[in-house]
């Protein structure tokens, strides 16, 4: 029989863990506030952010450099997703967003008819608390639930799954209902896997590399470069809020991210760019878009923008021919 002090220790440890999980879940509020700010100022055209934003909450106003970062990362990921959807246009495909939070990508793409002729099976995974909140907001919106129904009728679907990703690393992991092992699949981790211990993050990826038989790819968005002065401040600011980005030190550079992707089985190709590179490169942001965004808000802290933007990256890796077709000219070696 467990001793009383052991029981007390177990309880306090599980309370502490639940507290840590809650902090991680609440990071979605930051992400959605940043999106709301960027949308309200015209950086992003996304009517669905409002629909998934807590009713009655004020529209937040983030610093110009944060708004620009939100814009760049959203557009870069959109571009990778679009290229995937447009490769082999008639082929059905699967998108799985890990830690999707209040992300609106499914709705934006559906409303823009960006799925084209492809049937897209769109899965979002998150903790139960976040999934329940999103589900009830979708149910409460005629427009959002209408899109889910339309997608279903048009040969696509949208599913929300209440799954703690760490459970996918168990010996007998849960089955994700509707996951199709035969479809070309794109995984997206937009600031999610960085909250897991590095070994658990790698095991989550292994779950998918083992289950999905066809072409498979991953897009990551996360912070990098924790060791310079700015990186150290970033780490300590997060720590003061109880947030520990556990993979940050292990995958601390663009090269480390590409290496990680290769090792995880995305071995046909890899690419990685920091947000500053994505902003400066015509391949990712057109001059017309840069001009438009620059006019939205006066940004006098150019050095700060460079610093902030060089501490976040988008990295992508793939295996299989379909992603070669979609992404091969986007490889990066530096
Ligand atoms: C910073 S938010 C990002 C949300 C969304 N991807 C975006 O970019 O707007 C991180 C999300 O990852 C989710 N997350 C982190 N660890 C998770 C885990 N172990 N299982 C499921 N979801 C997790 C959090 O609940 C949260 O919704």
Kindly describe this structure.
The protein is α/β, with parallel strands linked by helices. It contains 13 helices and seven strands. It has helices spanning 4-40, 48-51, 64-86, 105-111, 128-139, 142-153, 198-211, 229-240, 254-263, 275-280, 287-296, 302-309, 321-327; strands at 93-98, 120-126, 157-162, 185-190, 216-223, 269-274, 312-319. Strands 3-2-1-4-5-7-6 form a seven-stranded mixed beta sheet, sandwiched between helices. Helix 1 (4-40) crosses helix 3. It is globular. The termini are far apart. Bound molecules: S-adenosylmethionine. Residues 24-25, 27-28, 31, 99-101, 103, 125-127, 130, 164-166, 190-192, 195-196 line the site of S-adenosylmethionine (SAM). It comes from Vermiconidia calcicola. Keywords: Methyltransferase, Transferase. Its EC number is 2.1.1.233.
The gyration radius over C-alpha positions equals: 20 Å
- Give a short account of the largest sheet: 7 strands, mixed
Structural class: alpha/beta
Average residue-wise pLDDT: 94
Bound small molecules, which ones? S-adenosylmethionine
How many H/I helical runs?
13
Strand order of the largest sheet: 3-2-1-4-5-7-6
> How many DSSP-defined strands?
7
Helix content: 40-55%
- Strand proportion, as a percent range, falls in 5-15%
- Uncertain regions spanning at least 5 consecutive residues: none
Query: N-to-C terminal Cα separation, in Å?
Result: 58 Å
Order of helices and strands: HHHEHEHHEEHEHHEHHHEH
Q: Tell me, what's the shape?
A: globular
